[in-house]
Design a protein that fits this description.
The complex is a heterodimer of chains A (113) and B (113). Chain A has 113 residues and is mainly β. In chain A, strand 6 and strand 7 form a beta hairpin. With 113 residues, chain B is an all-beta fold. Chain B starts with a strand and ends with a strand. Chain B has no helices and eleven strands. In chain B, strands 2, 4, 5, 6, 9, 10 and 11 form a seven-stranded mixed β-sheet that branches. A four-stranded antiparallel β-sheet of chain B has the order 1-3-8-7, with no helix packed on it. The chains are: A mainly beta (113), B mainly beta (113). Chains A and B meet through strand 5 and strand 10 of A and strand 4, strand 5, strand 9 and strand 10 of B.
């Protein structure tokens, strides 16, 4: 049973456009929702994260939107740049018991000029 | 510099051999994790350890073993019982207690020859 479902699997966006990646979760105990960015041959790095007490968090060109009732959250990348081309993973965990992060299957983003 | 070091970066294994992947962290983090990454599969949890001398199986522990004798070290052994070991292996650590951000190493790519 996949606890975090991520879509789309791949995404091609024009330079300057908006990239949108969606995730849905099932476990209502999840209370921490990070997004990770991974470049080829490298380990993932934390991009931005949100907790369910807010509906939106913005850091520069990156925004997380969170819908607790729908159990969905999404990453928006504004003014997408070729340097944003990478694989993006959503994840979730419950801080109760310090449980491990559960990851979505990833979205490969290509930003073309 | 604080961080997580995985070694080697590339590893080749003959069928029937056991191999050990190294993961060392100097972040003073309590929890450490091993994930396996395959194309289109996201990151799947192999084993994790919340504290020294204790560890738990993740979703795909069969054919793997770990130890946690020191806080800073969490080696992963891929045994001959793992039928499809070719993959990218990622080690991560998280500060204990209310810590949330997972820091990843640069990964080890294991190939069976």
């Amino acid at each position: 049973q996949q606890q975090v479902k991520q879509s789309p699997q791949s995404l091609i966006v024009q330079k300057g456009g908006i990239s949108i990646i969606n995730c849905a979760y099932e476990n209502t105990a999840f209370d921490y929702f990070p997004w990770y960015q991974q470049f080829p041959g490298k380990g993932p790095a934390l991009l931005i994260a949100i907790r369910p007490d807010v509906s939106e968090k913005k850091e520069g060109r990156f925004t997380i939107s969170f819908n607790k009732s729908a159990k969905q959250f999404s990453l928006h990348i504004m003014d997408s740049q070729p340097g944003d081309s990478a694989t993006y993973f959503c994840a979730a965990r419950s801080s109760s018991g310090n449980t491990p992060l559960v990851f979505g299957k990833g979205t490969r983003l290509s930003v073309i000029a | 510099d604080g961080g997580i070091t995985q070694s080697p970066k590339y590893l080749f294994r003959k069928e029937g051999q056991n191999v050990t992947l190294s993961c060392e962290q100097n972040l003073n983090h309590d929890a450490m994790y091993w994930y396996r990454q395959d194309p289109g599969q996201g990151l799947r949890l192999i084993y994790y350890s919340q504290i020294v001398n204790d560890f738990q199986k993740g979703d795909i522990a069969e054919g793997y073993s770990v130890s946690r004798e020191k806080k800073e070290s969490f080696p992963l052994t891929v045994t001959s019982a793992q039928k499809n070991p070719t993959a990218f292996y990622l080690c991560a650590s998280v500060r204990g207690g209310l810590g949330t951000e997972a820091f990843f190493g640069q990964g080890t790519r294991l190939t069976v020859v």
